[in-house]
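Long-time lurker, first post. I've been practising inverse folding by hand and with some scripts of my own, and I keep getting stuck on stretches where the structure tokens seem ambiguous. Below is the full token string for one chain I'm working on. Before anyone asks, I'm not after the true native sequence, just a reasonable design that respects the backbone. If someone could post their per-position residues I'd love to compare against what I wrote down in my notebook.
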């Protein structure tokens, strides 16, 4: 692989288009077969979860500046903000590649527990798993249905069926992720604090948008919590808190039985106007506009 200093960075969409593919839907992209590569180009996944299944042959790939050789029956799950570079495919490589927006999961997944394995707050930026023949067959069978439905241009329910099949594919990947994730032993105090912060953030408690709220429950100063999370992840706790609140808001807005004022109160906002301002800043849409799009 070429030295990383010689590589140019691009958005995921730019990289996919440069590979010669079309990207008609912003919420997802999928393809299969032998993937061509763009020399010295690295894609920043940003707000997408990437799922790559190597079905035959092998492929050289660089994830977060670490080189890997993926062989048949290997599943890669790359989480948002991973840096991925497909270096070369060889030995009659074949595979399935799928990218799905984190917002897509938040909008369409009813069970919030399913979103957790793919949250950006996870310290695991990617997962590599060796699949059994049965697990690989499940993925291939689901993908065949996805591709077949994509080609069914005359189907009146094409988008709805395609959306649900994509969620089935993601559910299968989530199960693999949960089974393969290993508990790592950490040696630094900053890592311990960061892990405790993430665990607290994912608990089913009334969320606060104040970093102090979490610092108090972790028995550390707000300054210490901010420093620990920044040193471990490169981002402040507020970034993760806002993403969590935004994701929860999207799930709640999908339930038309809940009023926006009730959702605002449930998420810990003192006023509905404050919630609306926060949500629009995070998503570019007001809560009402977001709900109308569902």
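-- Answer (accepted) --
I ran through it position by position. Result:
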């Amino acid at each position: 692989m070429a030295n990383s200093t010689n590589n140019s960075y691009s958005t995921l969409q730019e990289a996919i288009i440069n590979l010669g593919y079309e990207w008609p839907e912003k919420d997802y992209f999928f393809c299969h077969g032998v993937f061509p590569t763009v020399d010295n180009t690295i894609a920043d996944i940003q707000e997408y979860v990437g799922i790559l299944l190597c079905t035959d042959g092998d492929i050289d790939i660089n994830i977060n500046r670490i080189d890997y050789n993926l062989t048949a029956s290997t599943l890669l799950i790359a989480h948002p903000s991973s840096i991925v570079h497909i270096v070369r495919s060889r030995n009659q490589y074949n595979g399935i590649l799928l990218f799905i927006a984190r917002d897509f999961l938040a909008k369409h997944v009813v069970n919030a527990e399913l979103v957790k394995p793919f949250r950006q707050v996870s310290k695991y930026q990617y997962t590599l798993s060796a699949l059994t023949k049965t697990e690989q067959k499940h993925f291939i069978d689901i993908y065949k249905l996805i591709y077949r439905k994509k080609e069914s241009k005359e189907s009146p329910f094409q988008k709805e069926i395609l959306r649900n099949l994509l969620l089935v594919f993601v559910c299968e990947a989530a199960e693999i992720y949960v089974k393969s994730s290993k508990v790592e032993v950490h040696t630094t105090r900053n890592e311990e604090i960061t892990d405790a912060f993430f665990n607290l953030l994912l608990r089913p408690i009334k969320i606060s948008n104040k970093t102090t709220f979490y610092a108090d429950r972790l028995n550390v100063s707000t300054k210490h919590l901010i420093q620990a999370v920044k040193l471990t992840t490169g981002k402040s706790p507020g970034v993760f808190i806002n993403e969590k609140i935004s994701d929860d808001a999207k799930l709640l807005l999908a339930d038309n039985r809940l009023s926006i004022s009730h959702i605002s109160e449930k998420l810990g906002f003192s006023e509905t106007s404050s919630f609306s301002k926060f949500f629009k800043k995070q998503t570019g849409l007001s809560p009402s506009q977001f709900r109308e799009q569902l």
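A couple of notes from the structure itself: The domain at 4-180 is CATH 2.60.120.280 (Jelly Rolls). Residues 1-5, 119-123, 182-187 have pLDDT under 50 and may be disordered. Happy to go over any region you disagree with.
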